Amino acid sequence: MRRAVCPGSFDPVTRGHLDIIGRAAALFDEVVVAVGVNASKRRLFEPEERLAMLEQACAEWDNVRVDGFTGLLTDYCAENDVVAIVKGLRGPGDFEYELPMAHMNVSLTGVETVFVPTSPQWSFVSSSLIKEVASFGGDVSPFVPGFVLERLTARVEERRAGGA
Q: Are 66 and 21 in contact (CB under 8 A)?
Protein backbone atom coordinates (compact mmCIF):
# COMPACT_ATOMS: atom_id res chain seq x y z
CA MET A 1 0.00 0.00 0.00
CA ARG A 2 1.32 3.43 -0.95
CA ARG A 3 0.38 5.84 1.82
CA ALA A 4 0.84 9.61 1.57
CA VAL A 5 0.34 12.37 4.09
CA CYS A 6 -1.13 15.84 3.51
CA PRO A 7 0.08 17.81 6.54
CA GLY A 8 -1.05 21.19 7.77
CA SER A 9 -2.72 23.16 10.51
CA PHE A 10 -6.01 23.46 8.58
CA ASP A 11 -7.19 26.42 10.66
CA PRO A 12 -9.72 26.26 9.02
CA VAL A 13 -9.85 23.78 6.16
CA THR A 14 -10.47 25.50 2.82
CA ARG A 15 -11.58 24.38 -0.62
CA GLY A 16 -7.95 24.81 -1.67
CA HIS A 17 -6.91 22.21 0.91
CA LEU A 18 -9.68 19.90 -0.27
CA ASP A 19 -8.54 20.31 -3.88
CA ILE A 20 -5.08 19.01 -2.96
CA ILE A 21 -6.43 16.23 -0.71
CA GLY A 22 -8.79 14.98 -3.42
CA ARG A 23 -6.10 14.97 -6.04
CA ALA A 24 -3.73 13.15 -3.69
CA ALA A 25 -6.47 10.58 -3.04
CA ALA A 26 -6.51 9.83 -6.76
CA LEU A 27 -2.73 9.23 -6.77
CA PHE A 28 -2.19 7.14 -3.63
CA ASP A 29 -3.81 4.07 -2.07
CA GLU A 30 -4.32 5.94 1.20
CA VAL A 31 -3.99 9.58 2.19
CA VAL A 32 -3.65 10.69 5.78
CA VAL A 33 -4.60 14.29 6.42
CA ALA A 34 -2.26 15.00 9.33
CA VAL A 35 -3.19 17.94 11.51
CA GLY A 36 -0.20 19.46 13.22
CA VAL A 37 -0.74 20.21 16.88
CA ASN A 38 1.65 22.86 18.13
CA ALA A 39 0.79 24.11 21.61
CA SER A 40 2.98 27.20 21.18
CA LYS A 41 0.92 28.51 18.26
CA ARG A 42 -2.41 30.21 18.83
CA ARG A 43 -5.04 28.95 16.42
CA LEU A 44 -8.61 30.04 15.83
CA PHE A 45 -9.86 26.47 16.26
CA GLU A 46 -8.73 23.87 18.79
CA PRO A 47 -7.12 20.68 17.42
CA GLU A 48 -10.27 18.63 18.08
CA GLU A 49 -12.37 21.13 16.13
CA ARG A 50 -9.99 21.09 13.19
CA LEU A 51 -9.95 17.27 13.18
CA ALA A 52 -13.75 17.14 13.26
CA MET A 53 -14.11 19.64 10.40
CA LEU A 54 -11.58 17.70 8.31
CA GLU A 55 -13.28 14.38 8.97
CA GLN A 56 -16.55 15.83 7.72
CA ALA A 57 -14.87 17.54 4.76
CA CYS A 58 -13.02 14.38 3.69
CA ALA A 59 -15.92 11.96 4.12
CA GLU A 60 -16.43 11.67 0.35
CA TRP A 61 -13.08 9.90 -0.13
CA ASP A 62 -12.94 6.28 1.07
CA ASN A 63 -9.14 6.25 1.06
CA VAL A 64 -8.65 9.41 3.14
CA ARG A 65 -8.39 9.46 6.91
CA VAL A 66 -7.65 12.25 9.35
CA ASP A 67 -5.13 12.10 12.19
CA GLY A 68 -3.35 14.52 14.50
CA PHE A 69 0.36 14.62 15.23
CA THR A 70 2.91 16.47 17.30
CA GLY A 71 6.62 16.74 16.72
CA LEU A 72 8.43 16.14 13.46
CA LEU A 73 6.41 15.21 10.42
CA THR A 74 9.20 12.83 9.38
CA ASP A 75 8.77 10.91 12.66
CA TYR A 76 5.05 10.63 11.96
CA CYS A 77 5.83 9.37 8.46
CA ALA A 78 8.27 6.73 9.73
CA GLU A 79 5.82 5.53 12.41
CA ASN A 80 2.95 5.26 9.90
CA ASP A 81 4.66 3.79 6.81
CA VAL A 82 4.16 6.97 4.79
CA VAL A 83 6.05 7.03 1.48
CA ALA A 84 5.27 10.61 0.40
CA ILE A 85 4.37 14.02 1.73
CA VAL A 86 1.93 15.88 -0.52
CA LYS A 87 2.12 19.66 -0.50
CA GLY A 88 0.01 22.08 -2.50
CA LEU A 89 1.74 24.99 -4.19
CA ARG A 90 -0.16 28.21 -4.83
CA GLY A 91 2.77 30.03 -6.41
CA PRO A 92 6.53 30.48 -6.52
CA GLY A 93 6.70 31.71 -2.91
CA ASP A 94 5.24 28.42 -1.67
CA PHE A 95 7.85 26.51 -3.67
CA GLU A 96 10.69 28.56 -2.20
CA TYR A 97 9.34 27.95 1.30
CA GLU A 98 8.62 24.22 0.82
CA LEU A 99 11.71 23.11 -1.12
CA PRO A 100 14.22 23.31 1.78
CA MET A 101 11.79 21.37 3.99
CA ALA A 102 11.42 18.73 1.28
CA HIS A 103 15.20 18.39 1.09
CA MET A 104 15.46 18.08 4.88
CA ASN A 105 12.63 15.54 5.04
CA VAL A 106 14.12 13.26 2.40
CA SER A 107 17.55 13.47 4.02
CA LEU A 108 16.13 12.54 7.44
CA THR A 109 13.96 9.59 6.44
CA GLY A 110 13.91 9.10 2.69
CA VAL A 111 10.30 10.27 2.49
CA GLU A 112 9.77 12.14 -0.77
CA THR A 113 7.69 15.27 -1.15
CA VAL A 114 5.23 15.50 -4.02
CA PHE A 115 4.31 19.05 -5.02
CA VAL A 116 0.85 19.51 -6.50
CA PRO A 117 -0.03 22.86 -8.04
CA THR A 118 -3.25 24.22 -6.63
CA SER A 119 -6.08 24.58 -9.12
CA PRO A 120 -6.21 28.17 -10.38
CA GLN A 121 -9.54 29.01 -8.75
CA TRP A 122 -8.02 28.31 -5.29
CA SER A 123 -4.52 29.69 -5.90
CA PHE A 124 -5.07 32.77 -3.72
CA VAL A 125 -6.94 31.02 -0.91
CA SER A 126 -5.22 30.50 2.44
CA SER A 127 -6.56 29.86 5.92
CA SER A 128 -4.94 33.09 7.12
CA LEU A 129 -6.63 35.14 4.43
CA ILE A 130 -9.97 33.43 5.05
CA LYS A 131 -9.76 34.27 8.78
CA GLU A 132 -8.79 37.87 8.08
CA VAL A 133 -11.59 38.48 5.59
CA ALA A 134 -14.13 36.76 7.86
CA SER A 135 -13.01 38.83 10.84
CA PHE A 136 -13.99 41.98 8.93
CA GLY A 137 -17.36 40.54 7.90
CA GLY A 138 -16.36 39.63 4.35
CA ASP A 139 -18.08 36.81 2.49
CA VAL A 140 -15.82 33.75 2.43
CA SER A 141 -18.60 31.29 1.57
CA PRO A 142 -17.13 30.38 -1.85
CA PHE A 143 -13.86 29.30 -0.25
CA VAL A 144 -14.89 26.97 2.59
CA PRO A 145 -17.49 24.22 2.98
CA GLY A 146 -20.80 25.37 4.48
CA PHE A 147 -20.28 23.69 7.84
CA VAL A 148 -16.85 25.35 8.13
CA LEU A 149 -18.43 28.71 7.31
CA GLU A 150 -20.93 28.21 10.14
CA ARG A 151 -18.19 27.44 12.67
CA LEU A 152 -16.00 30.25 11.38
CA THR A 153 -18.81 32.80 11.57
CA ALA A 154 -19.69 31.68 15.10
CA ARG A 155 -16.06 31.87 16.24
CA VAL A 156 -15.57 35.33 14.72
CA GLU A 157 -18.74 36.53 16.46
CA GLU A 158 -17.50 35.06 19.77
CA ARG A 159 -14.23 36.95 19.38
CA ARG A 160 -16.03 40.18 18.54
CA ALA A 161 -18.16 39.77 21.65
CA GLY A 162 -15.01 39.23 23.73
CA GLY A 163 -15.68 35.54 24.34
CA ALA A 164 -12.23 34.33 23.31
A: no
